[in-house]
Every structure is written in structure tokens, then in C-alpha cells.
Amino acid sequence: MPALPTLNIVPFISVENMMDLVLNIGIETFLDELAAYIEADFRRWEVFDKVPRIASHSREGVIELMPTSDGTLYGFKYVNGHPKNTRTGRQTVTAFGVLSDVDSGYPLLISEMTILTALRTAATSAMAAKYLAPENANCMAIIGNGAQSEFQAIAFKALLGIRRLRLYDIDPNATKRCAKNLRNLGFEIQACRSSEEAVEGAHVITTATADKQCATILTDNMVGPGVHINAVGGDCPGKTELHRDILLRSDIFVEYPPQTRIEGEIQQMPADHPVTELWQVIAGLAPGRKNGAQVTLFDSVGFAIEDFSALRYVRDKLSGTNLYENLDLLADPDEPRDLFGMLLRRKALTATSRKPA
Q1: Superfamily assignment of 124-302 in CATH?
Q2: Which residue from 158, 234, 236, 248 has the least number of CB within 10 angstroms?
Q3: Which Gene3D superfamilies match (predicted)?
Q4: What is the CATH number of domain 9-115+307-333+340-348?
């Protein structure tokens, strides 16, 4: 099998390549290993460059850049969120990412990240739940059965042993599709008629809706003691899923407060409302779940370090495979300072190739 290319030729992972890589590794194994990469990077959180993602908002959605670096590698993701896209047969979220060498500035990898973002979001959710969910949790409600739902279910099965699922979506066809996709993967599945029905008996409640608005997917009376809430859907200003009263009685855990206070559920709260950074829990600097009655909330908006971890994991998995394409991305003149000369040589070569034989 070929070694990864270097310098001017950059490996590119297409959607087809990514699907084959995931399937060759196995979805549960991929999620489990990816979660371990994310957890390892959270343990060294302090070495990373950290800024809130750079967002361009419109009436219809948002386009964002998410950069970070650990001083050796640099990564960024381009991602959009446009809920209306489903009406024209398009994805709500699409993405691609780049991983580069800090020493030279040369890209090392370009990858699709629509599928990879779904995987890293689910892996992060389940990784956080290892520290925040009640002991022996085995039942999860998933409210919002769109593109993220199956990944969430499989990640929680792989990392926490979740076997019972209670599904609800305002679109019954979405719930039917989700249940069908998960049918033979070891779950006991209940399709529910309301959010209230879905949360009955659930130890973990995942909300993963897509509408770009402040919504009330969960009300305070729906959340009993000891529940862990995995709030995935809120990811931009003016878009939330939980009633404010839930936040008042939950211990809230976040990725990066300057970003989450703008985009997450806690945008409903004062700027000094107490939160715990998840990396501190993972590093042993702060407690996670403290008792069986505690309501924990992972106010997840997604952060660049998670995408960095995902790109790092995928690059490590590419060695010894042919699951990438060689992309001629970077100019590579014989003399690095003679970029114009490279154009002249190309002109001469083209002229020669056009001469009749």
C-alpha cells in the first residue's frame, strides 16, 4: 500500500473515501477510537490556540470557520448550518477541513467533514457522558431524529452501553427512518408521539433539533432528578432548545465558555452564570457527576479542538491504505523563488505538446 504523499501533493479524503474508511474500521470502533483522540486532546487543552469560531450569519443560516493549533499541527474546519436546505434536498450541515504542518505551513490533509463532523459530534457527546451521565445508564431519549441521531445512538452504545432508545421528531418520517437505520444494531427502540413521552424513563436526554430559532424542546417539568441532558442542537445566537428553568437547576458543562455563552443554551443566562469547562473534568481538576440526584447538562456547541482531533485521527488511520486521492494543490517550482519561471516552463511544455507529430 502507498505511503502518504508529502510536500506539494496533498492527500484528499472524498466522501466515498471517508465512508469506506469508517466502514473498514467499523462504526462503533471508529467512534470509540475517535472519542479517545478527543479525550486525549482535552487533557492537553491548555496547549491549544483557542478562539470562538468565526461566523457569518444570514437570515437563512450561518457559515463558520473553526481554527486551532497545538503548536505542531494546525487545523481548521469550514462548516455551514442552513435548516431550510432540507426543503431542496440538501444537507443542513456540510463541512470540509484541513490539517497542516506548523513548521512549514504546508497542508498535510484535506478532508470532507460532513460525515466526519457527525461522527465527532457524537463521539464528543458520549465522551462527555462518561463523566456526566448517571451510573449504569441504559436508556436514552433522542428528540430530533435528523442526520445526527443515529450517530449519537451508536456512540452512546459504544462508550456507555446504551441499549434502549426512545425517539421523537415533529416529522414522524424522520423517526421511522432513524428507527429503521438502527433496527439491526442491538437497540430496543420505541417511537414516541411527543417529547414528553420520549423522556419517560430516560437516563440521558439528547436534543438534536435543527431549526434556527429559540425553541422549547424540553420544559422543566420533563426533567427528573439524576438525568443527564446532552444538548446538541443549540449552536448559534438565537437558537436554543431548553427552557431557562432547566438551566437554573442543572450543573452545566461546556467546551469553551466564550463561544458557548454566545451560541449555547447559556446564552439565555447572565454572562457570569456558573459553568464548568469539560476539559477540567477530564483532567481531574473539577468534579463531573457528584451524586445520583444531580441534573447534569452538557451544553455542546462543538469546538475546533474536536475537529482537530478528528482530522488527526483520520490522518493516522490513512497510513497503509489507498483511501485518499493525491491532490496537486501546491506550486512546486524547481527553484522555490522562481514561481514565474514555473509558468514559463508550463507555457513552453504546452506549446510543445500542441505541435503536430
Answers
A1: NAD(P)-binding Rossmann-like Domain (3.40.50.720)
A2: 248
A3: NAD(P)-binding Rossmann-like Domain (3.40.50.720), ornithine cyclodeaminase, domain 1 (3.30.1780.10)
A4: 3.30.1780.10
CA–CA dist 246, 219 (Å, integer): 7
pLDDT at 313: 98
pLDDT tier for residue 216 given thresholds of 50, 70 and 90: confident
CA–CA gap between residue 342 and residue 347 (Å, rounded): 9
Which run of H or of E encompasses 39? helix 27-43
pLDDT for position 204: 98
What sign does the CA torsion over 336, 339, 342, 346 have?
A: positive
Amino acid letter, residue 322: N
Under the banding of pLDDT at 50, 70 and 90, the label for residue 1 is: very low
Beta bridge partners of 207: 143, 231
Q: pTM value?
A: 0.93
Active site residues: 235
Burial of residue 224 (CB within 10 Å: 0-12, 13-18, 19+) is: middle
